[in-house]
Amino acid sequence: MELSNLMVIFGGTGDLTYRKLIPALYNLQHEGLLPENFVLVSVGRRDKTTEEYLVGIEEGIRGNARFPFEEEQWNRLKARIHYYRLPFEDDEAYPEFDNYLCTLEHKYATRGNRMFYLAVAPEYFSVIVDKLQKNGLVREVGAWSRVVIEKPFGKDFASAKELSRHITHVFGEENTYRIDHYLGKEMLQNIMVIRFANAFFEPVWNNKHIDHIQISSTETLGVGDRGGYYENSGALKDMVQNHLLQLLAVTTMEPPIRLDTESIRDEKVKVFKGLKELDEDLVVHNVVRGQYVRGIVDGQEVPGYREEDRVADGSDTETFVALKVEIQNFRWSGVPIYIRTGKRMHHKSIEVSVQFKEMADLLYMKGYQSTAPNMLVIRIQPYEGVSLQFNAKKPGTTNEMVPVKMDFCQNCEIGYSSPEAYERLLFDVMKGDSTLFTRWDEVEYSWRYVDRITQAWAKNKPAFPNYQAGSEGPREAMDLLARDGRKWWTSN
Ligand SMILES: NC(=O)c1ccc[n+]([C@@H]2O[C@H](COP(=O)([O-])OP(=O)(O)OC[C@H]3O[C@@H](n4cnc5c(N)ncnc54)[C@H](OP(=O)(O)O)[C@@H]3O)[C@@H](O)[C@H]2O)c1
């Protein structure tokens, strides 16, 4: 496996690079995983020297890396980081940029391999890719050239298709790495292991035994300074189309024939193909959207969405979505899957909760009362772990049952911190392993599904704002489950 490479980050002075990408490289360096022959070129628009650039990113590492800052590690890393000023649209600047890269390739012996990471606004994805090709920066023979694309990948099916065509025309599907950083999260990968490596889960992972599944990703933060971006996106496109549908696919897919990249992706695509198609009536009935108004979060009063920076006064952008999804296949027919995501919610967590069907009534005859359903909760963030709830006899002389929990917390032990998603994903790009990146047909089917919702929504004006910051979301989201005799599960 040829790991040596020259990495170019377009958007090297941006927030993502500062908070996630460079700290991830530092973590890899700290673990001894960064290849010996490696060099990073950070590209931005601002005029600054490499020395000035390094001062800023050192701060980023100190504040965001999972390993403590160590001078020796930093010195080793910074010797391999260079800043380069390049306005993306400037066609004429690319040949000189290529000469610069060639000099560094020679100096750091990176064997001609190039990773182009596009940490830029989506309107630049195609611009940069075109200029790289036109000016001969993409190697096709004797070395690899890979491109990593940040989200959002399109704003609907049509734009995503056009973008994909553009990029794969230059890099090919096999060298196109569409990032969905949820897939890099440790516990999300663990879902597959928990399901397929445990004799007591896989046999009951179906509609005979499971009552329903909940996939929930909530946060206490608002849009912060990302109001401009969020106004054009909203919770549905920002979270559901990518992260939450990926989580759904990993939770419900069939065991792949092999654990290789394409076999896993094939199974995820089958899940998307099996999603019950939404029509306007179903969207009205099964999809809830919300937007927060001023309220109290963690004891502090916070502004409503429409009061946030760079958000229109009468904005109809949703900051909350809840939906009921059905998968029409042999395993899942009849098992609803409820998804929700929201900003400025009561608590911050990402988790998958699997509720099992109630047992037959045998014990009631002995006077036992049914207490709680069996639950498996897979916690992805902030705690990573698995919790299993089951019923046991309450000690004593009466016939009483109590729900008890077995908890496995992966990141509760002092000193343990799982690799960051970006750390794993960057290393995978270097290795050429695209398992944890989304293939075009996954993107295609998820957009087709989400487009139906946006099209139906466009026909009705929402009654926004409709939930208070610091709450559990709009009333209608509770009703969505209450109607089916269920309620949202919160383990925190
Ligand atoms: N930030 C996050 O947490 C996050 C999370 C998930 C996905 N993403 C995605 O990652 C991408 C980058 O996000 P970000 O938050 O890092 O954005 P950002 O902070 O706005 O940074 C944008 C970067 O692009 C550069 N740039 C913009 N226009 C340019 C031009 N014409 N020529 C040269 N450089 C130019 C900027 O350079 P100057 O600063 O020098 O002008 C800066 O380095 C976006 O697609 C976003 O959706 C971000």
TrEMBL record:
- Is Ribonucleoprotein a UniProt keyword of this protein? no
Q: Which stretches make up the Glucose-6-phosphate dehydrogenase NAD-binding domain?
A: 8-190
Q: Which residues bind NADP(+)?
A: 45, 151
Gene3D superfamilies recorded: Dihydrodipicolinate Reductase, domain 2, NAD(P)-binding Rossmann-like Domain
Provide the species name: Anaerotalea alkaliphila
Which parts of the sequence bind substrate?
181, 185, 219, 238, 343, 348
Active site as annotated = 243
Broad EC category? oxidoreductase
Write one Gene Ontology MF term: glucose-6-phosphate dehydrogenase activity
Task: Cite a single GO BP annotation.
Answer: pentose-phosphate shunt, oxidative branch
**Function as written in the Swiss-Prot or TrEMBL entry:** Catalyzes the oxidation of glucose 6-phosphate to 6-phosphogluconolactone.
Does the keyword Membrane feature in the UniProt annotation?
A: no
Q: Which reaction does it catalyse?
A: D-glucose 6-phosphate + NADP(+) = 6-phospho-D-glucono-1,5-lactone + NADPH + H(+)
The annotated pathway is:
Carbohydrate degradation; pentose phosphate pathway; D-ribulose 5-phosphate from D-glucose 6-phosphate (oxidative stage): step 1/3
Extract the Pfam families matched here: G6PD_C, G6PD_N
Q: What is this protein called?
A: Glucose-6-phosphate 1-dehydrogenase
The UniProt keywords, alphabetically, are: Carbohydrate metabolism, Glucose metabolism, NADP, Oxidoreductase
Annotated family: Belongs to the glucose-6-phosphate dehydrogenase family.
Species lineage, top-down? Bacteria, Bacillati, Bacillota, Clostridia, Eubacteriales
Entry EC number(s): 1.1.1.49
The Glucose-6-phosphate dehydrogenase C-terminal domain extends over: 192-489
